[in-house]
Q: What sequence folds into this?
């Protein structure tokens, strides 16, 4: 034991903190590029190397970092590798990492304005900045009837939207009396909508079968004519349509649902899920993806995907904050305070499910101030340009075909061969360790996804990825 009891001393913290910053910088600048992108760990491998009990006696920090290097790193899939093209980007940056560190260092709980005014007020200001940066309607800003809040994920944002929509549709009765008086609540999303919306529909208690999956057109975008037809059928059957989710950049193929045509007719709450692609709207030339967003009741996108901000950071905007607050506000005695009761402040605990909240606005503030709008536009444009170049190489090669339109930074493609051959191609590429892709199914066919957006990816990495794909494709065909 030391003078500080069992706590780490400030001196040790300074020493280890500086070493850890060096470790992180080395990881990004030198190490990650050479590590196999996809972890090769078999199930249980990492656990088996860890003791079965927590230590009785505290250990030196060096021992922990040694285990990070020796035990954990082999079990890491390197999302920050410049050669990571799977799923979606989760591109972190140094200013964001420093923002996370500062948030941890301050360790505040921002559940109420009064529990840390700066935590709330910085968040309000930064979300207003973002609304302007993305060209979102004025109504989503705190100066109007709406406003923005940081949530942990797009899944939680959609859940919050569904809850507020459910309450609005039931005259703010379902929180009080449950759903027994409202058995016919029906929600809508396309067949390509992210699975989180189905999970959220289950959570809010309407039942999975009351989330209607609307079919898509040849670009995998929702067909508004089929949506309208389904709504009319449901109305005729005595149901209550109350919510529709439109996606700006679907997970499988980056399809853009036509927001303007999925307008909030029939009093339906329209939520827009722009999880990855919303970031592109920082560039005016890509703002077409938001055509009609002014018709939405709520909108969410994830800076933790493509805006150089560490997970977790989803920006959720509503046009009518009163509807949201009425849905989620609860004020027990132990949270009462003068500012809240005077109605003079925002208490973000009323804007999502959890009570407690971290100071997440710090990392976003640091990112926005470090890059500036021009820095973000510069990097987004490069990512899109490289993805478009990749799409043109696919289109020009007779062995491959594009599997969907590629409007931004995601390219879906396949070998002109069987599903089994495409699966084999993906397996070979990922097992090779030099790059990583993921897959989906489009029109029932196995499809490879190439998504450009990592912080350290450069044009040469994309060119090298194409060379690897060509080599592995040759190997696949040579076994035929
Ligand atoms: N919506 C879309 C369109 C997505 O692509 C994703 C993630 O892949 C999600 C929602 C879920 O995001 P989160 O992990 O923030 O809940």
A:
């Amino acid at each position: 034991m030391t003078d500080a009891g069992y706590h780490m001393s400030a001196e040790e913290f300074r020493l280890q903190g500086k070493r850890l910053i060096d470790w992180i910088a080395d990881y990004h600048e030198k190490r990650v590029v050479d590590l196999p992108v996809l972890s090769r760990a078999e199930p249980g491998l990492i656990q088996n190397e860890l003791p079965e009990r927590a230590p009785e006696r505290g250990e030196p920090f060096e021992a922990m970092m040694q285990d990070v290097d020796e035990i954990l790193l082999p079990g890491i899939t390197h999302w920050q590798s410049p050669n990571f093209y799977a799923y979606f980007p989760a591109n972190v940056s140094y200013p964001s990492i420093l923002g996370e560190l500062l948030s941890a260092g301050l360790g505040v709980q921002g559940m109420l304005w009064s529990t840390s005014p700066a935590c709330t007020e910085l968040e309000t200001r930064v979300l207003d900045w973002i609304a302007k940066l993305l060209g979102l309607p004025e109504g989503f800003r705190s100066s109007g009837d709406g406003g923005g809040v940081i949530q942990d994920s797009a899944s939680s944002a959609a859940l919050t939207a569904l809850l507020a929509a459910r309450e609005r549709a039931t005259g703010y009765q379902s929180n009080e009396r449950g759903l027994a008086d409202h058995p016919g609540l029906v929600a809508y999303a396309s067949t390509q909508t992210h699975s989180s919306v189905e999970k959220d529909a289950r959570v809010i208690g309407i039942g999975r079968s009351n989330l209607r999956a609307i079919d898509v057109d040849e670009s995998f975008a929702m067909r508004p004519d089929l949506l309208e037809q389904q709504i009319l059928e449901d109305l005729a059957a005595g149901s209550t349509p109350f919510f529709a989710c439109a996606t700006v950049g679907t997970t499988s193929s980056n399809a853009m649902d036509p927001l303007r045509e999925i307008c909030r007719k029939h009093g339906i709450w329209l939520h827009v899920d722009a999880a990855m692609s919303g970031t592109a709207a920082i560039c005016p030339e890509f703002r077409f993806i938001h055509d009609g967003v002014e018709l939405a009741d709520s909108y969410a996108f994830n800076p933790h995907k493509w805006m150089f901000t560490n997970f977790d950071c989803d920006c959720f905007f509503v046009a009518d904050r009163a509807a949201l607050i009425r849905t989620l506000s609860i004020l027990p005695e132990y949270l009462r305070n003068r500012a809240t009761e005077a109605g003079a402040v925002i208490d973000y605990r009323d804007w999502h499910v959890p009570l407690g909240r971290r100071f997440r606005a710090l990392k976003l503030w640091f990112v926005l101030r470090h890059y500036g709008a021009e820095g973000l536009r510069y990097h987004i444009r490069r990512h899109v340009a490289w993805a478009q170049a990749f799409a043109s190489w696919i289109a020009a090669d007779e062995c491959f075909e594009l599997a969907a339109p590629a409007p931004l930074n995601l390219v879906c493609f396949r070998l002109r061969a069987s599903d089994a051959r495409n699966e084999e191609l993906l397996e070979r590429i990922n097992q090779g360790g030099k790059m990583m892709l993921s897959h989906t199914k489009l029109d029932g066919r196995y499809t490879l996804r190439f998504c450009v957006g990592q912080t350290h990816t450069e044009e040469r990495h994309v060119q090298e990825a194409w060379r690897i794909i060509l080599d592995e494709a040759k190997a696949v065909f040579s076994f035929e």
In short: The first strand starts at residue 147 and ends at 151. The chain has a mean pLDDT of 95. The pocket of pyridoxal-5'-phosphate is lined by residues 88, 153-155, 194, 196, 247, 250-251, 273, 275-276, 302, 314 (CB under 6 Å).
